[in-house]
Every structure is written in C-alpha cells, then in structure tokens.
Specification:
Length: 219
C-alpha cells in the first residue's frame, strides 16, 4: 500500500530492481501509467508493474529523495532495525548516499506490525553493525513512532564490508567499483568471504522473486 499511496498522491516513486540483480533503480509517476490500463495505479505497485511502466535511471542521474521506506523484521523505539539479513536495503541506501540523493537528514521510515516492535534490549545498540540503517519513523497499524534516533546512518557504500560473493550478485556495484578504481588508479578494499543465504544464492541463479523497497521524491 505504500507504493499505491505514493503514486496516488502524485509523488514520484523511486524503486529498486528486486535485490538489484537485474538492474538499478527506476522512477515511476502516475502520469506514466497509460489511461487504458484497467487497474490504474494498482498495476504499477508490483515489481512487474514498476518494471513495465517505470523509467530506469543511471548512477549519474541527479535526484533528491525526500523519504525512504524500508521493510523490517523488527525494530525498537530507539530506531534500531533488523532486516532479513541479506543487506540489500543497506546497499541501496549506500548507493543513494554515494549519488548524493540522500543524506543524514533524509527520513527513513518503516512499516511493521505492532508485534514486530521490540524492547530496546532485544536489539542493543552496541550489537549493530556500521552498515545497519536505523529508522527515524515507525508506522504500525495502531501508532506512529518518531524515534529521534541517535544511531548513525552509514555514510555510503562500505566496500570493506562487501564480500566478493555479494559483489558478484550485483552488476551495478561491479560497474561502480570498476569505475571508481579506474578513477583512483588503485583497488578499493574488499570485504571477507561469506556464505550467502539460500534465497540470495537462488536469486543469483535467476530464480525466485523479491519485493523491492520504495523511496519517494519530489517530481
């Protein structure tokens, strides 16, 4: 429903390809949906619809994102967040930071059920990793929580945390790494090897489907 409300209210949706495995981000506005589309805005709210009606952007596109919406497995009132453990939301955030599309002041919002709201001791701040993205606003079916989090947001792509296996999944990051290394004349750091979760491995073979996160920006 987040995508629907973004589009229905006339805002521009910035949405990633699922797990960034086939592309990058696309922009989508309700004016991009042809009038003959029977389902209207709803048709563009799926990954397939966004791919059909959206306009792919490049790394050099100058955009400003007003608000980021991320999925969460659980969160705390202090803004600590855990995702699915695959790190794609953090990579998408890091790329947007590198592009200059977001900064520390850009609000990060998550929508969860009330049962996914945990006491702070369940996700202690000292256990968070430097690439974890905290949330500024939590929306549940019963309440809206402004966390006023003091947990720092990652400043960009943390290449020293990015494993060769994860990098091998994501073409846009491979292209960016090659580009930056060419400009620097030196290799970027590489993270340690990792065993990818089964879902990530399956998607790397071109199977399965995933749900992308949403970002909205001013048109």
């Amino acid at each position: 429903m987040v995508r629907y409300h973004v589009l229905e209210t006339g805002k521009t949706l910035l949405t990633p390809q699922p797990r960034l495995r086939t592309g990058f981000f696309s922009t989508l506005h309700k004016d991009d949906i042809p009038p003959e589309e029977e389902r209207g805005v709803l048709a563009a709210c799926t990954s397939a619809g966004a791919a059909k009606y959206g306009s792919p952007i490049s790394l050099d596109r100058k955009i400003k994102v007003d608000l980021i919406v991320v999925g969460s497995s659980c969160v705390t009132r202090e803004g600590a967040r855990l995702g699915k453990g695959e790190g794609f939301a953090e990579l998408e955030y890091g790329i947007l930071r590198w592009m200059g599309a977001v900064d520390d002041s850009t609000l990060v919002v998550t929508t969860v059920h009330d049962s996914q709201l945990l006491p702070s001791e369940e996700i202690p701040r000292e256990k968070l990793l430097e690439h974890d993205v905290p949330v500024d606003v939590i929306v549940t079916p019963t309440q809206v929580i402004y966390t006023n989090t003091t947990i720092p947001k990652p400043p960009g792509i943390l290449w020293h945390k990015l494993s060769p296996q994860k990098l091998g999944q994501i073409r846009i990051l491979q292209q960016l790494k090659d580009r930056l290394e060419g400009e620097l004349g030196a290799p970027l750091p590489t993270g340690p090897d990792e065993v990818l979760p089964p879902l990530a491995e399956r998607n790397n073979r071109g199977k399965g489907k995933g749900k992308g996160r949403s970002r909205s920006r001013s048109r």
